[in-house]
Specification:
CATH architecture: 3-Layer(aba) Sandwich
Largest sheet: 7 strands, mixed
Number of domains: 1
Low-confidence stretches: none
Strand content: 15-25%
Mean pLDDT: 96
Distance between the termini: 17 Å
Structural class: alpha+beta
């Protein structure tokens, strides 16, 4: 069952495509994090990643973490990350799917906001602009920034796409 808001975020360690290990909560250092579970064959992920990347641009700096958790092998993941312009850590969960089994994302993409206390503060799956904007608002509050509209209406992309 998907981790619910308020639940302690499951601890894990995964290898990134950069060869480094990332662990939750160890690598967070008390900072909030957004985890994005994705597949390289996911058309909804293709729609969502420009907005997810926009969160990193809207809230630069070291006050929070953004990790993409791939459910595909390294080669496909690296190619996808390059095509999507992902500049933050991309973690490999395939082939055992240990972390996916812990978090149980119902679709891709699924995003989790983990607060600085290590609890799930928000989650959403598929792509809904309003959900991305809510995530942006909650993240901004967690890091003491002014919120930005991360997914503007009327930008030529769909407001909703199921995962």
């Amino acid at each position: 069952m998907i981790l619910k808001v308020g639940a302690l975020a499951s601890h894990f360690t995964l290898l990134g495509i950069d060869g480094r290990e990332y662990s939750l909560p160890g690598s967070l250092g008390g900072r909030p994090a957004v985890l994005v579970f994705f597949k390289t064959s996911c058309g909804t992920c293709d729609v969502a990643f420009p907005y997810i990347n926009g969160l990193r641009e809207a809230y630069p700096g070291d006050a929070w973490r953004l990790w993409a958790v791939s459910q595909d092998p390294p080669g496909r993941t690296i190619d996808y990350a390059q095509r999507q312009g992902i500049t933050y850590p991309v973690l490999l969960d395939a082939p055992a799917f240990v972390v996916s089994k812990l978090y149980d994302p119902p679709a891709t993409p699924t995003l989790f906001l983990v607060d600085s206390a290590g609890r799930v503060a928000y989650s959403t799956h598929g792509f809904v602009k309003a959900d991305v904007n809510e995530l942006s608002r909650l993240l901004a509050a967690a890091i003491g920034e002014e919120p930005v509209v991360a997914a503007a209406a009327g930008d030529g992309r769909p407001d909703f796409k199921p995962g």
